[in-house]
Amino acid sequence: MILESDPLAPYAMHPEDSAGRVHPEPPHRYRSPYQRDRDRIVHSSAFRRLSHKTQVFTGEMGDYHRSRLTHTMEVASLARTMARALRVNEDLVEALALAHDIGHPPFGHAGEDLLDERLGGAEGGHGGFNHNAQALRLFELLEVRYVEFPGLNLTLEVLEGQRRRADKTPDGSLRSPTIEAQIVDAADSIAYDAHDADDALELGLLELGELRELALWDEAARRVEDRYASLTPLELRRATIHELLDWQVSDLLGVAQQRLEELDLPSADAARSAPIVATVSRGVAGKKRELERFLFDRVYRHPLVLSHRMEATAALGELFDRCVADPGRIPEHYRQSNPGDEPRAAADYLSGITDRYALEAFRSL
Length: 365
Hints:
CATH architecture: Orthogonal Bundle
InterPro entries: dGTPase (IPR006261), dGTPase-like (IPR050135), dNTPase_2 (IPR023023), HD/PDEase_dom (IPR003607), HD_domain (IPR006674), HDIG_dom (IPR006675), PHydrolase_assoc_dom (IPR026875)
Family: Belongs to the dGTPase family. Type 2 subfamily.
Keywords: Hydrolase
CATH topology: Hypothetical protein af1432
Protein name: Deoxyguanosinetriphosphate triphosphohydrolase-like protein
Domain HD: 68-193
């Protein structure tokens, strides 16, 4: 049993080993550098706006399903649990988790695709749009919270973790991240696999019987049924979600602890050059891929979801075009941050607004 008072492992990122910040600051009297990062992220305007940004389903589809903010909080919760069990830096893990989706525009990936298309993609003259890279722009440039420096002046470890999310290898894996960053990436996957299915069931886009045809979901449901008798469908659904989360986290911890024992990493720097340790077993990974393919085909491409996506992208696209045609619509701060580049200024501005604000602005045109 790992207790809260247990010291950090050698392979953890120790606060005293932090590389510091771009703009040097004196240490705080009673908060570690990563605690300060966490607080700066939570108090940022970009973080607050996540409460009114789409995770998968827009707000017009109801109020049960996850928003970008509630998803972020769930990821942070799972990540802290794993960090404590592996004796790595919980404050750094929490900061990375709270930061991981902060660059998302309104309407989720639909909004991201629209802005990326308007900016010409990664090879275009304006560099395209990627929510992970946009988070870095917020942290280093766009957020205005302090007199002494632009952005939030987060530690180089948090910026490194976010930069690795923005710069992935072709197969989608992170390159040599700290174990803290690995944990956040895994927690993100675990959270959305379970919760996107839960939200789709609540909205009536799926039936429980469909999910029982998938190995990961069916095995979790069988474990629940072995413990409890005569569950209602709603009780079974909620208990299965809990089991999915606990099973995947337990599986990951088992794999990670075995790999850490084999590698015997002496420092966080050694972990950066070692193979990935925070991952689920091969058997669970295969079942996760089956569930994710199913969610893509049956949920993310559901006609109702696509219909809302089309409405959302039409609204955001019209707002973007109006801003580029008339840069006076773009707040001065974004124009000053992007001199001579109205499309990028428009993207910086519009990516920061909420779903609700975007729709209200579109309807007022």
